[in-house]
Amino acid sequence: MKSSARSSFRAIKDEIARRIGERTWKPGSLIPGEEALAAEFGAARATVNRALQELARAGLVERKRKVGTRVSMHPPREARFAIPLVAEEIRASGAEYGYRLISRAERPATPEDAARLGVAAGETVLHLACIHLADGRPYQFEDRLINPAAAPRVLEQDFETHGPNEWLVGSAPFSRGEFTFFADLPSAEEARHLAVERHAPVLVGERRTWLVARPVTVVRMVHPREHRLTSLL
Amino acid sequence: MKSSARSSFRAIKDEIARRIGERTWKPGSLIPGEEALAAEFGAARATVNRALQELARAGLVERKRKVGTRVSMHPPREARFAIPLVAEEIRASGAEYGYRLISRAERPATPEDAARLGVAAGETVLHLACIHLADGRPYQFEDRLINPAAAPRVLEQDFETHGPNEWLVGSAPFSRGEFTFFADLPSAEEARHLAVERHAPVLVGERRTWLVARPVTVVRMVHPREHRLTSLL
DNA sequence: GATGAGGTTATGTATAGACAAATAGGCTGT
DNA sequence: ACAGCCTATTTGTCTATACATAACCTCATC
User: Fold this and answer.
1) With 60 as the cut, is the pLDDT of residue B15 above it?
2) What CA–CA distance (Å, rounded) separates B176 from B14?
3) How far is CA B18 from the centre of its chain?
4) Is B219 within 8 Å of chain A by CB?
5) Distance of alpha carbon A199 from its chain centroid, rounded?
6) pLDDT band at A47 (very low <50, low <70, confident <90, very high)
7) Per the CB < 8 Å rule, is A178 touching B21?
8) Fewer CB within 10 A of the end CB, N or C, for chain B?
């Protein structure tokens, strides 16, 4: 092999991926152990280990102690989707970003609020509805609940000119989050603000975040039918 | 040192994440260098390095040579969604998996096929339609085109009892892929097989794979409205 | 004042050696 | 036959050291 200048765990990783791709090592089969590979590539075992760990994280191989490393039967088991701030997403696409606050309300949590956000009914919550525009056309409708107990000073913000996300990412850290996508029908309000029909399908993203055990915010983001969520494998 | 039994890069990672989460280190600010952290945690620099690299990959911090490591302004910028084989996804949920082939056709590529799969019109393609069931209820409708030129022996398979995915993952490797999600309305055929109304929204996943420059397969996977695609951040 | 060469510093990666943890498979005793 | 221990193998992780690389900084030079 080429024992060229620097081996690099990256070169090893690519070579192994290549052999898997061209079926030199077939799905389900065991590949040589770290020691053997280290010898073949003229590298330290730690280097081979790093290459294999990254391949395992990518889902290309599965590793078990004492057993060894085998080529995964089900190649890419996960895809990563970028979820940037809407504002950046829109600007990155070359369009002009626009924002409009639709409503803002501080109120004691209704039973629905309580269930949705995860606080006790009656605690103060902040409810926001706003719309994000790309070149003046509706891009995303946002409906959000914020738990002021977990987001200090959020009640001082009016969110007239900037979306809550921009403030939250800088001021309300979280330690745990959950992201869900599904297809839905828009509510009457959503349909009106997105300028779509009531019966038109929409793509909904729902995100919840917690700071340790305390809920921070829950948001429903509604996109018109044309919206695409894409990832490269 | 010590104090604790094993330091572990994981413990260091968690502790750093915790400090970021509770804003001991604020978004945008520099955190101590690897050397300093190594001293604080009583670990080797390599161990701290591993912890920081994982945090960087998760998007929590950004690192630059000579500059240092700073807390990311835009926390988790990406989410990873698992995309297992339908069969496993269904079994993992505790339901019984069912499969039915709806149609299978070898044909010269129509202009639509050619555009969708990325081959020249007139080349032979294999078209499949099938349905995946969970406890007897429709779970996913699958409409797939396969390029026999990139999947040797695919034409010998009848796919009567097993879905094309199970065969493909073991027999048709790919080097590049693309995954897209969006909301849509079902076609008449899709609505019939999924047992949903024509005007009910559905969640569509579309996946294309290539072996180097040659398209392997393109598939449209249609899920009823209830389907949720979830990821933890 | 602009520019470029060095120096300084923080991260990136490699290495060898060691021990830890998981576990398949064999061995042992009942 | 069977349960349980033993051990060899393989990956997981840590340490210590070294050098590579990128980028900010200063300062000399034109």
Assistant:
1) yes
2) 33
3) 28
4) no
5) 28
6) very high
7) no
8) N
A49 touches strand D (CB under 7 A): yes
Is B233 at the interface with chain A, CB within 8 A? yes
State the pLDDT at residue B227: 92
CB atoms within 10 A of CB A19: 13
Considering only residues 163-222 of chain A, list those whose CB is below 7 Å from strand C.
none
| pLDDT above 60 for A146 | yes
Protein A69 CA to nucleic acid D16 C1', in Å?
28
- Band of the pLDDT at A75, cuts 50, 70, 90? low
Report the pLDDT averaged over residues A77-83: 73
Å between B28 CA and nearest CA of chain A: 9
User: Within the 82-121 window of chain B, which residues sit less than 8 Å (CB to CB) from chain A?
Assistant: 82-85, 88
Q: Positive or negative CA dihedral for A14, A15, A18, A24?
A: negative
Nucleotide showing the shortest C1' distance to residue B37 CA = C10
Q: What does the alpha-carbon distance between residue A36 and residue B58 come to, in Å, rounded to a whole number?
A: 31
Which pTM value belongs to this model?
A: 0.76
Nucleotides of D under 7 A from a protein CB: 8-18, 20-24
**A150: nearest CA partner in chain B:** B22
pLDDT confidence bin for B75, thresholds 50/70/90: low
Half-sphere exposure of A62 (CA within 13 A, CB side): 11
* A139 vs A172: which has the higher pLDDT: A139
Identify, with chain letter, the residue nearest to nucleotide C25 (CA–C1'). Answer: A66
**In the structure, what pLDDT confidence band is assigned to residue A232 with cuts at 50, 70 and 90?**
confident
